[in-house]
Write a structure and sequence with these properties.
single chain, about 180 residues, mainly alpha, 2 domains, about 75% helix, rod-shaped, binds zinc ion
Length: about 180
């Protein structure tokens, strides 16, 4: 609604609309005059005007804060890295829990051991993990198993050579690595 005549008396409801448009600087001179004329004689609208102005001011301040954060490249990078770390930590924790779970579940171990190569073993881990309520990625499994294999003294050089050669995939050995993540 537009007010073009200063003699028009807006209702409280209309005044509230004028107030909110006024905060967006969207009022004609006449509308401002009509609005103030009502507000001057109406306690309820005076109160509403104060509350709306306070709210608008608070929101502006929040917006400015938010803009400052987004514009800061360092902050964005830091946040991205932290989120990635949290995500990864979560995945590794879940993977370890899955390893513990597998150690106590013969049927699960049996299915994992029957993977025909390392890639399908890893995919099977993710798939069976999800079925049991664990959330981790193939990247989590690959990274953890790799670093476990590299640090594992229990693996003989011959076994490592076999893995490196990509030849004899040993599901049982992979399973040992998975269970060993919790050591
Ligand atoms: Zn009023």
């Amino acid at each position: 609604m537009k007010f073009t005549d200063t003699h028009t008396a807006p209702s409280c409801e209309e005044t509230t609309l004028l107030l909110s448009r006024g905060l967006d600087c969207d009022l004609s001179g006449t509308e401002v005059a009509v609005m103030y004329a009502h507000v001057a004689g109406c306690d309820a609208c005076r109160l509403a005007m104060g509350e709306m102005a306070t709210l608008a001011f608070a929101m502006q301040a929040l917006n400015r804060q938010h803009e400052a954060l987004v514009l800061d490249d360092g902050f964005t990078t830091e946040l991205t890295n932290k989120l990635a770390a949290v995500h990864n930590e979560g995945g590794v924790t879940q993977l370890r829990q899955f390893g513990r779970h597998a150690a106590q579940d013969a049927a699960l171990r049996d299915r994992l051991q029957r993977a025909k190569d390392q890639t399908s073993f890893i995919q099977l881990c993710v798939q069976l993990g999800q079925e049991s309520g664990y959330r981790f990625t193939t990247a989590d499994v690959a990274l953890q198993l790799e670093s476990k294999a590299a640090n594992d003294d229990c693996l003989s050089d011959a076994q490592l050579d076999k893995v490196a050669a990509g030849g004899g995939f040993d599901g049982r050995q992979m399973l040992d690595l998975l269970n060993g993540l919790n050591d």
